[in-house]
Amino acid sequence: MSDVEKVDPREIQTLQVYLNEYAQQIEILTEQLSMIEQQRIEAAAAIETLRAIQENEDATVLLPVGGGALLRVKVLDTGHAIVNIGADVSVERSTEDAANYLEGRITELEALGKKVAGSLEQLQARATEISRRLEAAQRAAQQAQAGQGGS
């Protein structure tokens, strides 16, 4: 009896389940990576805005009020900003401290992004290996069926 005749249909099913699970995990990590990048971009834009406001005592900014509408407003206190530090907690800090806090946050986000990207790479490698094994098992099963049908 050759290896071709020993293909277990349960193995094919198991490999397919693993492949589906890896695909779901890959999708989740990809979304997380996208959210991390979006947060990093927003923090960088906030730093740029804080520094620009700090340099201009007569600062005017656009304030989004929803529905795509913006108001042009004057910043009353260019020396301070309110920063969300997590868990829906916000604190008032000097504009420079707020910018420094956001820079630290960017550093954390970049480290987290690298970690998630590494996990994503590992999952993709595993999924590729499972996919190869699944394809080989399916080919073997097809060859076994063709061999039995031709006898």
Automatic annotation (TrEMBL):
Keywords: Chaperone, Coiled coil, Cytoplasm. Gene3D superfamilies: 1.10.287.370. GO terms for cellular component: cytoplasm; prefoldin complex. InterPro entries: PFD_alpha_archaea, Prefoldin, Prefoldin_subunit_alpha. One of its GO terms (molecular function) is unfolded protein binding. Pfam families: Prefoldin. CDD domains: Prefoldin_alpha_GimC. Residues 12-56, 120-147 form a coiled coil. One of its GO terms (biological process) is protein folding. It is found in: Cytoplasm. The keyword Coiled coil applies. Belongs to the prefoldin alpha subunit family. HAMAP family: PfdA (MF_00308). Molecular chaperone capable of stabilizing a range of proteins. Seems to fulfill an ATP-independent, HSP70-like function in archaeal de novo protein folding. Heterohexamer of two alpha and four beta subunits. This is Prefoldin subunit alpha. The gene is pfdA.
